[in-house]
Amino acid sequence: MGNSKSGAVSKEILEDLKLNTKFSETEIAQWYDNFKRQCPTGRISKLEFEGIYKKFFPESDAQTYAQHVFRSFDTNDDGTLDFKEYIIALHMTSTGKTTRKLEWAFSLFDVDKNGYITKSEVKEICAAIFKLIPADELATLPEDENTAEKRADKLWKFFDKGENDRVAEGEFIQGVLENDDALRLIQYTPGK
């Protein structure tokens, strides 16, 4: 039986995904069949990914944020997402443990991929997040986070760092885990 449930998913990728996600062989095979229907080439381009994000945020400018999310998922830096990158991203962002989600969030904020986050990178991602927030929701934000710059400043203060300092992944995860406001500031949840 072995590979019969998994269709065209290679045994190596299937075993790797079973080890690194909570998905069963059957679920992975179903995801793969859907992925191949949607992406016959077996890859999602940055442009296709941006199109997917636009569907989730039709009233917002999702392009910049989608580009950062894509960069964080494209772990081999080839400019596309293959099935494995897609499933691991799906797992980390939807069903993974909080620490795994924060590891992904760190990779999102680490724009230059050097293993650290700077205040300018925090500002860049906060600006992208802000573009997702509809105007009517922007009007309801607290005074100290009603612009991307203020949100970035507020978030940066949680790490107790100077303007030109940097934050390592462990510091980022610990800082966000220790403060619910920091957790809220690193994301945007529609309708919240």
From TrEMBL:
Pfam families named in the record: EF-hand_5 (PF13202), EF-hand_7 (PF13499)
Coiled coil: none
Keywords for this protein: Calcium, Lipoprotein, Metal-binding, Myristate, Repeat
Occurrences of domain EF-hand (ranges): 61-96, 97-132
Origin superkingdom: Eukaryota
One term of GO molecular function: calcium ion binding
Residue spans crossing the bilayer: none
Nucleotide-binding recorded as keyword: no
InterPro entries, A to Z: EF-hand-dom_pair, EF_Hand_1_Ca_BS, EF_hand_dom, Recoverin
Gene3D superfamilies: EF-hand
Role this protein plays: May be involved in the calcium-dependent regulation of rhodopsin phosphorylation. Binds three calcium ions.
Family the entry assigns: Belongs to the recoverin family.
Record protein name field: EF-hand domain-containing protein
Source organism per UniProt: Eleginops maclovinus
